[in-house]
Structure formats: C-alpha cells, structure tokens
Amino acid sequence: MDVGAFVQENKRWLIGCGIGAVAWLIGGAIVDTVFNPISAAKSPKSLGAPTTDVFDQAALTAARTEGEQLATSVQQLRAANAFVQSDKYLPANKGKLDEYQYQVGRALKQAILGAADDRDVQVTESGLSWDVPTGVDDIKGVLFGLELLDEVQQRLFAAHDAVRKANEDAPGLRAILTLKVDSRRGPRSAARTLRPGEVDPRDAFVQEQVSFQFQASEPVVLGFLESCLKPGRTLVVDGWQLLKPQRPGDPCTVKGTAFGIAFKEGK
Q1: Which of 227, 235, 243 is nearest to 210 (CA)?
Q2: Closest of 226, 156, 212 to residue 180, by C-alpha
Q3: Do the Cβ atoms of 259 and 236 come closer than 8 Å?
Q4: How are beta strands 236-243 and 205-216 bridged, if at all?
Q5: Number of folded domains that form the chain
Q6: Tell me: the pLDDT tens digits for 98-152?
Q7: How many CB atoms lie within 10 A of CB 239?
Q8: What is the pLDDT of residues 168-192, one digit of tens each?
C-alpha cells in the first residue's frame, strides 16, 4: 500500500481530523439547546408568545431522539480525536514551572538527537524549537506542545524501525528537518466577552499545534500517518504535503502540522 492508497482509504478520518473539534463544539451547543431550550434563550412568555404547547408530544420525542443521536456522534468524535496528557507533561506538583519546562525541553532535545544518531538520521538542534514561555498558562501550553513533539518523534522513529526490521537495507527515515511547537497569537488565557448562548472553546478543551518536516521513504511516511490515529493519544493531522523525489531512491519530503486536543473532565 502506498501513501495515495492510504489517503483514499482513510479520507473520512483525515477530513474528520480537521473538523472534529469544531463539530464537537457545535454538537454540544445543539444538544444543550435541545435539552435546555429555556437556558439558551429568553422564555416564550417573556417574548409575548402563547403559553400553550406549540409542538405536540410526537415532535418533542423526535427532537429528543435526534438529540440523543447527536450526543452519541459527538462522543464518537471526541473519542476519535482526544489526546490524554501524561503526568510528565502536566504542571501539577512540579515545583517551579519555568525550571521544570526547561528541563523537560532539554531532555526531549537530547532524546531526539540521541535516537537520530543511533539510526544515522540527520537532525540539527536548531531544527527543534519552541517559544520561551513567560507566564503560567504559556508554560502549560508549551509543556503540552512538547508532549506532542515527543509523540511525533517516537512515532517517526518507530515507523523507521519497523521498515528496517522488515528490510535492513531499506532507506527508512533520512532526516528530521523541523520539529516545532507552533506559537499562538496572544496569551493562551486571554479572556473575551461571550454573547448569550455562545460557547467558549477553552471551557471544553485545550489544544496545541506542532509543525514537522522530514525526509523518508514512502513506507515510513505511511507508517507514521497510520500511527497518528491512536485511541486516547490521537495526533490530529491538520494539513500535510508530500513531495515525491525527482530521482528513484531519493527520500520523499513531508511537511505538515498536527495538533492535540485534551478535553477537560466533565465537559
């Protein structure tokens, strides 16, 4: 199977990756409106509407059934796109967060450089980057981004190892050009005034995005993409480009972005 076949067979998942979070928010708002219509708007009486039932029982039952079906779809989307953070990258009980984030980031760089050296994969320290956070919320965001980078590098090297295990002469992963925690515009905790009935995404989940660029053989690219879909640890591929080599035997160049969605408990 090549990358093109993978895309065709998993087109619905790849598209769903890009819209999963949005659909979850919209679905949640609709479900809330169905089951709590008065809380989402002014009461009919306050608007001068008749106080008698406008819809009969059959219509109400149909609406509730549709709401339950929508809620099920929302849960399925959530399960398919969720990324559950590990304790190592959570800020609780870690002492001074700025020092802890620095230590974690440094250890991750060394791990990537060491793994690449063991496999004769080209990578430079300058290609591994993230912002230096200044506030608590920014530190939390960078820690989440570092965990996503950690997952990307582990899955890349795992795909390389699998290809080499099947054929020790296979080219595998040639170079990691970029692994980066993408910057966010403005503070992550910036507050804004919500309109009546509007949903603030930060109340439901936190999200960080990373960028990657690497050169590898097509089987490694395929293995990496397949590994992005992992229950509870999904990397949502937001966009990617595959440039095939001009000469046979040269590696493909892959450039893309992925993000992780960590849903808050009870949301």
Answers
A1: 235
A2: 212
A3: yes
A4: unpaired
A5: 1
A6: 999 999 999 999 999 999 999 999 999 999 999 999 899 999 999 999 999 999 9
A7: 12
A8: 999 899 999 999 999 875 444 455 5
- pTM, two decimals, is 0.72
Which pair of structure tokens corresponds to residue 159? Answer: 């795909």
Q: How far apart are CA 149 and CA 123, in angstroms?
A: 14
- The tokens describing 39, both together, are 């809380």
- Helix/strand/coil for 98: helix
Q: What angle do CA 19, 24, 27 make, to 5 degrees?
A: 120
Domain holding 104, by residue range, is 3-263
The strand pair at 173-181 and 128-129 is best described as: parallel
Spatial neighbors of 6 by CB under 8 A, at least 6 apart, are 222, 225, 226
3-state SS assignment for residue 254: strand
